[in-house]
Design brief:
By secondary structure, the protein is α/β, with parallel strands linked by helices. It has nine helices and 16 strands.
Length: 457
């Protein structure tokens, strides 16, 4: 990932530049000047361009956050699409404009690994920033130092927007139940698909857990709880996710990937045809929802992203059927989106859909991601044990400090800051679920291999 593409001011000005240029293209018909076929905008009809321009015009940005000059990871598909397209076009057209390093400015991490990135566009900072913040001023995608032809960005953004609007077909059938041993180990990691050095360190620590399990002849499974950045594109899967996935080709270790909201920013096409198509994920049978079933436990993995924060297709009826058909099994749910949060407002969607199921008292555990934190909750909303494991690959600004009181209903919040920089960014990690017949234990391990929390405590 490139430093400037994670800077709010840089990305917002890129969006405005794209909007203004595409508006000019529509007004003047400039895309058809020159030889036919020489312009990347040839073949894209005016209606598609106009729709994208209107979407950029209507774009509403969330309030700024302290981390936005170092790690602006928007949840809006428009800006994520621009991140993808600028990154891909720059790497193809002007790779010499990308250099290693964390940039300048006081937020560059004084740590073994940079907080977020190890690449930057070779362009200087401006002096217009607020004290202590980075700024690059207004970004013009025509800047030849970065792009040889900015029309590739404009056309690429329109194409990906169209892909986002025209989703891949939903596979309306679950995989499984996939048999799981009564003493299986299940590793959970969320929001890991960034490919940055610290995310790769998490994969290395997961690999150590797997090697220990292999030595003990233990059955093992690894589940990604969703999100490959920026938009779940084919190149992003092939460069940021699949090469670093901790399960090796041909190993008898189960691999599974939930659908995340960023995976849907290109309509989910490459979640299916690049991610799930990898042979390591064959047990998932090309569908985004599935179940793992031991003699005492059933893990029901849900797709809450095809319809953002909701259950699409027959998932809700399937959950009810699994509870009814397996009354003697304990049940754990897996999803990308959270049911509730100590730090973010969560309303509607999957919450309203599944509340009658929770009221039955049959949900023993729920693991989710989306929020880039490591959190463990007390019994809440009908779920006996729940945990956010979204700290696998995206830096998050820590709101609370070590020693601050835990907001209700939190039981644990991993607040160790990464490195010794002035700003408190999170430490990455994952969860290891150990089954022991009807019992379940959970160990939380960070990017340095520290086991920092166990449940039950």
């Amino acid at each position: 990932m490139i430093t400037q593409l994670l800077n709010r001011d840089f990305l917002v000005s890129a969006a405005e530049d794209t909007r203004l240029n595409l508006r000019t293209v529509l007004a003047e018909g400039t895309r058809r000047r020159g030889d036919v076929g020489s312009n990347p905008l040839d073949g894209i009809d005016d209606a598609a361009i106009a729709e994208f321009v209107q979407a950029l015009t209507d774009l509403e940005l969330p309030p700024t956050a302290p981390k936005d000059d170092v790690l602006f990871m928007p949840r809006d598909p428009l800006l994520s699409i621009l991140q993808t397209v600028i990154d891909e076009v720059a790497r193809e057209q002007r790779p010499q404009a990308i250099s290693n390093g964390t940039g300048t400015g006081r937020r560059a991490a004084a740590a073994p690994r940079p907080v977020a990135v190890d690449e930057t566009f070779d362009i200087p900072l401006t002096a217009a920033a607020a004290p202590g913040r980075r700024a690059w001023g207004a970004f013009e995608v025509t800047r030849p130092k970065i792009l040889s032809d900015p029309r590739w960005v404009w056309s690429g953004a329109v194409i990906l927007w169209n892909r986002f609007k025209n989703r891949a077909p939903f596979v309306d059938r679950p995989a499984g139940p996939i048999p799981v041993a009564g003493d299986a180990r299940i590793v959970l990691v969320g929001d890991w698909g960034s490919g940055i050095p610290r995310a790769r360190a998490v994969a290395e620590q997961i690999r150590k857990e797997l090697d220990d399990g292999l030595a003990a002849r233990r059955e093992q499974h690894v589940v990604h709880l969703g999100d490959v950045y920026y938009t779940g594109g084919e190149q992003e899967y092939n460069e940021r996710f699949l090469p670093y996935w901790p399960v090796r080709d041909g190993e008898d270790i189960g691999s599974y990937a939930l659908n995340g909201n960023h995976d849907m920013y290109q309509g989910g096409h490459h979640y299916y045809d690049a991610g799930l198509a990898d042979p390591r994920f064959a047990r998932q049978e090309g569908t985004s929802w599935f179940s793992l079933k031991s003699p005492h436990w059933q893990f029901l993995a849900l797709d809450t992203s095809y319809d953002d924060k909701s259950l699409h297709g027959g998932q809700l009826d399937w959950i009810r059927a699994q509870l009814e058909d397996n009354p003697d099994h304990k049940t754990a749910l897996l999803s990308h989106h959270q049911l509730f949060s100590a730090y973010e407002e969560v309303t509607g969607g999957v919450i309203d859909q599944i509340q009658p199921v929770l009221d039955s008292g049959r949900v023993d555990a729920w693991f989710w991601a989306h929020e880039h934190r490591c959190l463990v909750y007390n019994d809440h909303r009908g779920v006996r044990f729940s945990s956010c494991v979204g700290h696998g690959g995206i830096p998050e600004y820590l709101i609370a400090k070590e020693g601050d009181p835990l907001p209700d209903p939190l039981a644990y919040d991993y607040r160790l800051t990464h490195g010794s920089g002035l700003e408190p960014f999170n430490t990455f990690g994952f969860a290891v679920v150990e089954l022991d017949g009807p019992e379940m234990r959970v160990k939380y391990v960070d990017e340095e291999g520290r086991a920092h929390y166990h449940w039950p405590p």
